[in-house]
Write a structure and sequence with these properties.
binds alpha-D-galactopyranose; 12 helices; globular
Length: about 700
């Protein structure tokens, strides 16, 4: 809900457990008052009466206190907004008005608060919306003047944390095949900057940070911020001299120019969402998950099917008959969606050719995709395909016809990565071409699913002939979003997966228009535990695709693991199978069928339940638990066991302490909190063992 002081200058947004308050001073400064436990409007008004520190020659009374620090005036923190006109730089705004949008059920729940400012014709609107305990923020800039306004930098929000000693910064870092790895380290004075200079979200950092001073998995205060943008981005976390912390973030990796707004043009930043939780890292994650399921992910109430993906089974060497053989095996183990990965189109027999030519390869699919799709449908499964629309191989009909459709700098080498170039999606003709090709494809065969890949970074982001070429960094992403939105509207039955060489494009922006993401190209079930642990800090299992592939792991590390371990690891997300099923024995297929059946039983809990990370993947035993209503399930993975020690005891969470729970695997009845212990349920032993434990309140 939103409370507003009578004088119309103090605003208080509150969720179930937290509040966020801000205040407009007489001098038109927008000051941050509070972010933390719930407070009343009277408390916010009392905070608003505390005067700012006095001006002194070497200190700014505003630094660390403003909601959205602009460039100019007595400010020395990193500005969220840098603007240049033909005459000058900087911003000096005046408050114009505020308005409150419509909330739910006639109240102010979920209502958007908009604060309007003006700087000589540039209209600046700050948007705030409380969803659960997540504050969504963004900014709109509209050039209402006669001249041009260059946005050198326009962050989505700046977050201010209270002055405390000993701030710790958590982040998710990585690289290809090792995404979403969690680290936590003391925040020292100065700035810590993370981001992507690559044109996509990147494998190197998820656009998320968390800050705490003494939180654990189960208790303590945690602040978290996550950006919804799938292009280059930057989040700067500053430890200010007075022990306050400011976090500012938005699209673009530097301040050298984002967009040029002509008269009447506007730019709306992505959403930068933030939350405060006093439930430790686990509580913060559950709040993030609930928020995304309720407000970000399309159709999140619908569970995702078990899929088969052909990539690791057949790589580029595919044919209709061979895919049909795989499909028959997949259907036999209970798969619900069959996805043909790379290699079905153009002259795509390796990664050297074909990207851009989105018509079925006539040698491999002489009658198009429909015959295979019909066979797959006939087996009771849905049918999906892989595409990489933003790319082109120089060896393609598209590139031969339109060599100027790619990003390039005139007179310079066009850098090829994986033998491909990036199409300039900011161009309208490229947008129309892709719309026409993809719309035709989705109309021509019964396709239910599209895995949308992006397999290289921007390197030569030029646009010859365009007066302001650097706009392509932002406009590429806006065009991608518009294309996805248009395809979703025209083909509502089609689900989309965001992939970028694994987890290179995972953020709240892409998640608001895709149904799941490909977490990592690393399908080794042990490595996956750490990747999934990091991923789960922010995103729910409902979008986290995980496949069971062959053992030893051919794609990456050659490690052998049991089918049991591979399944239990992958069942913590949206289960898929990606091995060469034509090589699996009858026994393996029979075992796989049982695991898939078990997954379907626990799927509502995994995909819609509350997650409790019982033990991190760093120790011998790792375990996650999902709770939905009266049911709970634990997925336990034993990495190593030494000295014959018993598996450590683990207390289950999120259960009714007064109720009794019956374990499906052992038949035992437990009262109150349940301990997972040695021998339960099937005796975890040796290395890389795993088990599933289901309990139901009786
Ligand atoms: C990327 C994806 C893989 C696969 C290949 C196909 O690397 O992450 O899953 O689709 O492309 O070329």
């Amino acid at each position: 809900m939103v409370d507003i002081a009578e004088n119309g200058r103090t605003w208080l947004l509150s969720g179930p457990t937290s509040s966020y308050a801000l205040h407009l001073s007489e001098a038109h400064e927008l000051l941050h008052l509070h972010w933390g436990p719930r407070i009343a409007l009277a408390d916010a008004e009392a905070l608003a009466r505390s005067p700012l520190p006095a001006y002194r020659p070497f200190e700014s009374p505003l630094d660390g206190r403003e909601e959205y620090p602009v460039e100019g005036g007595p400010r020395f923190v990193r500005p969220a907004l840098c603007v240049r006109t033909d005459e000058r730089r900087g911003t000096e705004w005046r408050f114009v008005s505020y308005e409150l949008g419509a909330g739910t059920e006639g109240g102010t729940d979920g209502a958007e608060l908009r604060l309007r400012f003006d700087d000589d014709g540039l209209a600046i609107t700050l948007h705030y919306r409380m969803r659960g305990d997540v504050v969504e923020r963004r900014v709109t800039l509209e050039n209402g003047g006669r001249g041009r306004v260059e946005l050198l930098r326009a962050d989505a929000a700046t977050w201010t944390l209270p002055d405390r000693d000993g701030w710790q910064l958590s982040q998710l870092h990585g690289r290809w095949a090792a995404e979403s790895l969690l680290t936590r380290a003391p925040l020292t004075h100065g700035e810590k900057v993370i981001g992507s200079r690559r044109g996509h979200t990147g494998h190197q950092h998820l656009p998320w940070v968390a800050l705490d001073t003494d939180a654990t998995e189960e208790r303590g205060e945690v602040y978290g911020c996550a950006l919804g943008w799938s292009g280059s981005w930057r989040i700067a976390v500053a430890q200010l001299p007075d022990a306050r912390v400011q976090i500012t973030g938005g699209a673009g990796h530097d301040d050298s120019g984002l967009l040029l707004l002509g008269p009447g043009e506007s730019y709306t930043t992505p959403v930068f969402a933030g939350l405060w939780s006093d439930g430790g890292f686990g509580g913060a994650s559950r709040t993030w998950h609930a928020y995304q399921r309720a407000h970000v992910i399309p159709d999140a109430e619908r569970d995702r099917p078990v899929l088969f993906n052909s990539w690791e089974a057949t790589f580029f060497d595919i044919s209709e008959e061979q895919q049909a053989a795989l499909a028959r095996r997949a259907a036999g183990i209970g798969v619900e969606l069959f996805v043909v990965d790379d290699g079905w189109f153009g002259a795509r027999t390796s990664d050297r050719a074909g990207l851009g030519d989105w018509t079925p390869n006539p040698d491999r699919f002489p009658h198009g995709l429909k015959p295979l799709a019909d066979q797959v449908r006939g087996l009771g499964m849905r049918f999906g395909i892989w595409v990489e629309p933003e790319m082109v191989n120089p060896d393609s009909d598209l590139y031969r016809a339109h060599p100027d459709w790619v990003q390039y700098q005139p007179g310079r080498r066009r850098t090829e990565l994986r033998n491909q170039l990036v199409l300039n999606l900011a161009r309208e003709d490229v947008q129309e071409y892709l719309w026409e090709r993809l719309d035709t494809l989705l109309s021509g065969a019964p396709i239910d699913y599209v895995k949308w890949d992006f397999n290289r970074c921007f390197t030569d982001a030029g646009w010859p002939g365009e007066p302001y070429p650097q706009r392509l960094w932002v406009d590429h992403v806006r065009a991608l979003y518009a294309l996805l939105d248009r395809l979703r509207a025209a083909h509502p039955r089609v689900a989309f997966e965001s992939c970028s060489g694994g987890g290179g494009r995972i953020d709240l922006g892409v998640l608001s228009r895709t149904d799941q993401v490909w977490t990592s190209d690393n399908t080794d079930p042990l490595d996956r535990l750490a990747i999934q642990h990091g991923f789960s800090q922010i995103h729910p299992a409902r979008v986290m695709a995980a496949w069971v592939t062959d053992s030893p792991n051919t794609q990456l590390n050659g490690r052998a693991s049991s089918l049991r371990f591979r399944f239990v690891s992958a069942m913590a997300g949206v289960l898929g199978v990606g091995g060469d099923l034509t090589e699996w024995t009858e026994e393996e297929l029979a075992e796989a069928r049982e695991w898939v059946a078990l997954y379907k039983e626990i799927r509502p809990l995994v995909q819609r339940g509350e997650l409790y990370r019982l033990r991190p993947p760093t120790g011998g035993l790792s375990a996650v638990q999902y709770v939905l209503g009266a049911e709970t399930v634990v997925l336990a993975c034993l990495r190593t066991q030494s000295y014959g020690e018993p598996v450590p005891r683990v207390r289950l969470r999120g259960l009714d302490p007064t109720a009794s729970y019956e374990c499906r695997e052992t038949g035992e009845v437990h009262r109150g909190a349940v301990l997972l212990h040695h021998g339960l349920p099937t005796g975890l032993r040796g290395d890389l063992d795993a088990a599933v434990l289901r309990l139901c309140r009786i």
